[in-house]
Amino acid sequence: MNNVAFDTSWRSQLRPDLLISLSYVAIGGCIIFALSILIADFVVPDHDLLADTISDLGAGRYEFIVDIGIYAFSGSLLAIALCAAHLHLGGPRWSFGLIGVGFMALIIFLIGARNEYGDNDSEGVVIHVYLVYALGLIMTLAPWLMSGGAYRAGRGYGHGLIAVSIIWTISAPFFFFLPTGIDGIYERYLGLIAFAFVGICARLFLALARDIA
User: Fold this and answer.
1) Other Cβ atoms within 10 Å of 203 Cβ, number
2) FRET pair for 197, CA 20 to 30 Å: which of 34, 55, 72, 107?
3) Are 14 and 86 within 8 A, CB to CB?
4) Is the pLDDT of residue 8 over 50?
């Protein structure tokens, strides 16, 4: 791994323990989200793994199971944004990228809190679809924006974020054109791409934190 050339005048102000803790929080949030979906797959009655989306699991009597996972993943993204702010790898692209990750955390939290999915909720202003569009757009841009800074830590990290951005950009639009019989499993595939983004970032921050320490 290529070490980042930190200015020693402020290097001592970096907190590797904070970076390590937040990185593990990010990874833990992904694990909790994945487990909540698996549990809901078995608990929710008359559930179709191929057809029913995560949103469908997040409505009804057992909505709290998936909601826990949604909030945990929101926490994952917030942890990554905090790491990126604490260990700023330079340039406006990195800044815009970490702000985008922060907005993704907020959007996912709102998706869970609003409960406007899966149950044909139409009371008041329904913003679920707009939140999804915003999430999709930011997920396209944030990995690419942060890739330049990631290259400073190692080519693998930069290549990984570029790959996430490309795969997401190609894959995400198809979700809106899929037949309802398979959109559930496809949404889970998109979720794995989002997990990959968090995983690459967490691995980057863990490696740099240990290097700083």
Assistant:
1) 18
2) 55
3) yes
4) no
Q: Rounded to 10 degrees, what is the CA torsion of 120, 122, 123, 129?
A: 100
The per-residue pLDDT for 10 is 46
**CA neighbor of 196 nearest in space, from 153, 152, 142:** 142
Instruction: Tell me, yes or no, whether 57 lies in a domain.
Output: yes
Position 35 scores a pLDDT of 96
Amino acid identity, position 17: D
Query: Per residue in 27-65, is it b (16+ CB within 10 Å) or e — as a string?
Result: bebbebbbebbebbbeebeeeeeeebbbbbbbbeebbeb
pLDDT of 16 over the 50 cut: yes
Q: With respect to residue 4, please indicate whether it lies within any of the assigned structural domains.
A: no
Residue 7 has pLDDT above 50, yes or no: no
Residue 3 maps to a domain:
no
CB 57 within 8 A of CB 69: no
Task: Please state the domain count of the chain.
Answer: 1
- Please report, for residues 73, 172, 178, the alpha-carbon distance to residue 166 in angstroms, rounded to integers and kept in the order given: 22, 10, 20
Ordered alpha helix ranges (H), 12-154:
16-43, 54-57, 63-86, 91-114, 128-153
The label of the residue with tokens 């809106």 reads: 176
The answer to whether 170 and 186 have CB atoms below 8 angstroms apart is no
Whole-model pTM?
Answer: 0.88
Residue range(s) defining the domain that contains residue 56 = 11-212
